Amino acid sequence: MSQQQQTSLRNRLLRVLGPNDFGLLAPAFEQVSLTLGHHLTEANQPLGHAYFIESGLISLLADTVRPGANRVEIGIVGFEGMVGLPIVLGTRRSPHVALVQAEGRALAIPAPVLDEALNSSRTLRGVLGRYAQSLIVQVGQTVCANADFNIEARLARWIVMTQDRLGRDDLPLTHEFLSLMLGVRRPGVTTATHMLEGAGMIRAQRGRITVLDRGKLLELAEGSYGGAEAEYERLLEEG
Amino acid sequence: MSQQQQTSLRNRLLRVLGPNDFGLLAPAFEQVSLTLGHHLTEANQPLGHAYFIESGLISLLADTVRPGANRVEIGIVGFEGMVGLPIVLGTRRSPHVALVQAEGRALAIPAPVLDEALNSSRTLRGVLGRYAQSLIVQVGQTVCANADFNIEARLARWIVMTQDRLGRDDLPLTHEFLSLMLGVRRPGVTTATHMLEGAGMIRAQRGRITVLDRGKLLELAEGSYGGAEAEYERLLEEG
DNA sequence: GTCATAGTGTACGAAATCGCACAGTATGTG
DNA sequence: CACATACTGTGCGATTTCGTACACTATGAC
């Protein structure tokens, strides 16, 4: 495909790369569409590519082996990140699934090319390594959120995180879907949604949630939001 | 200090290194004692050293900013791992705390030395990068465990994980402490302990839990244990 | 042996969440 | 327009876990 202009990209990892590092990757990029419901990576299957997200939203899910239990979301990725961290960390498999939750675009790069680029550039390793660190922080924050916060606060957290990554105020989310993301019952989401709507934080329509008052949402989410995001910003600047 | 013999070490990461990679690190190692309750790393403070654990047990804790809420455990590290992954990933700070939970020993290495060694050896990057991946999997599994399993199953999981890392059957654990680790009330741990004891899985004494029937514990923990551990073994072999 | 202290056992109402079932309502398709 | 389908709203008892309080008991220090 035709080569990408670095400055025309939205992916923040790619934008922060030096021209040399970008040049290592750019020739191999292939633009791909992210279709709703598609699995970008499968659990325990070889990862052929890494994906730098340009737009849309990806959920990282972990399987619980427990019969009857659904997959649980451990993290989300948007244009600030990438899917395929295991490649960066030296392996080609992972027990996680990357699910497209909101459609968008990404730049795909073959695993061997990324691997080679990482081995030839210390600074590239720095940027992607720090992104891995920020993901660890994000997952850790999810542990905290699930341990200490009720459904409403977690819903608020999730909405704000999604808004960040989609860069829009209207988010295409069904209750069914949110229940999966938060690991709760579907009616529990309905109730929590009403609460947020009653408080003027959001407007809920069929299959869509619109953010009305981000400040109030943040207030409700208290400490469960923010740490990972601040860490991400800090890490990106370190580059 | 005197140089370490690679084969006399217990740390599994160090043992799996090639002699050249080990040689990069060995001259800088300093043996340190891990004292109960000591913080090996502090949240958001510069990490001066990484620690390859020889014995004992370390908990990785994340602060919830929420007032009144306690720290929550997101992962544990024993002789299979290391503390100070952020250094491997290209930064010197992290919002997590590494708390010594059972005393032991570790080999400390100054961050700049580790950094330099990583930059000069692709294989070393491979081993420690894959360890980072295994930690991500472990934290993800914690998310699942907290979402889908009751206190008893989570207690069983935690006991088995601790047994793995201490290499003993008698574990120095108070209910108070376990309640912190599992993110539940202290009396909840007492009740769960009784259940496991009644089922012949453990013997509980003041400040100590002895594993009697690991098989039954695993059965109770169901899918919440095993995935991360299998992934660790797989990743170590890939080296 | 006495004593302070850390650790453990138990109780009980309150709250959150669950599991399930079913009714209602947008939305798009033919 | 009719209809199937997906999504949302609601109810209710069951269950888990919480918050809190208090009593009891090993254990080690003196």
From TrEMBL, chains A, B:
Domain Cyclic nucleotide-binding: 13-102
PROSITE patterns: CNMP_BINDING_3, HTH_CRP_2
GO biological process, one term: regulation of DNA-templated transcription
Cell division is among the record's keywords: no
Alphabetized GO MF terms: DNA binding
Pfam families found in the cross-reference section: HTH_Crp_2
Stored SMART domains: HTH_CRP
Name this protein carries in UniProt: CRP-like cAMP-binding protein
